[in-house]
Amino acid sequence: MLIPSTDLNGHAAPARRGQRIRFRNPTVDDGLRVWELIAACPPLDQNSIYCNHLQCSHFADTCMLAEQGGDAVGWVSAYWPPAKPSTLFIWQIAVHPKARGEGLGRELIEALLESDACAGVRRIETTITAANDLSWALFKATARSLGAPLRREPWFDRDAHFDGRHDTEHLVRIGPFDASKEASA
Length: 185
Ligand SMILES: CC(C)(COP(=O)(O)OP(=O)(O)OC[C@H]1O[C@@H](n2cnc3c(N)ncnc32)[C@H](O)[C@@H]1OP(=O)(O)O)[C@@H](O)C(=O)NCCC(=O)NCCS
Hints:
The protein is an alpha+beta fold. The chain has one domain: Gcn5-related N-acetyltransferase (GNAT) (Aminopeptidase, 3-Layer(aba) Sandwich). The chain has 4 helices and 7 strands, in the order βααβββαβαββ. The chain has a 7-stranded mixed sheet with strand order 1-2-3-4-5-7-6. The model is unreliable at about 1-10 (pLDDT under 50). The protein binds coenzyme A (COA). Coenzyme A binds near residues 41, 93, 103 and 141.
């Protein structure tokens, strides 16, 4: 286990923030709550509620919800890129502003990596805009924790792909690593 307090079988983890945080894969009934959480977490792109319903159903095995006192306080969505079977692509990660800076972002990723569905993961990929300092801090910390290198390069370009309407998304690659080993940091 990367973080011993994380219980992926639907049980509550030990309390560290007053009320316990519970990690679980989403169900088809969580899509609207996820959409509302994302709305509270700029600069994340707001996708359609329908998209979040698909994540919570077809992609539930590679998504993780964190609840505290019944509230959705954290979310990570991910999927397997078709041509990269051992790579987990993290689409979005969100921690409600009231729960930030206490390790929940890292725990969400670690909870996903510890889940049975992700047993074969050797690499993580995601995209981050240059100005998103909190996201860079999270993924750099994750790479350190996994003892894996982090590489970055521009991918979806502001002008070529977004017609100036969105900042360039940098492709971030973390790995290779063995998620079954104890975190080194
Ligand atoms: C990015 C985000 C998910 C991080 O969640 P979080 O629970 O606050 O992150 P953590 O507490 O796990 O912190 C992760 C690392 O970032 C660092 N960090 C957290 N807040 C920080 C801050 N305000 N300033 C500097 N570093 C910070 C932590 O120290 C930690 O590194 P460490 O383990 O080496 O100490 C959260 O800020 C968020 O939802 N942001 C808005 C949505 C977004 O931009 N998502 C990412 C793009 S998909």
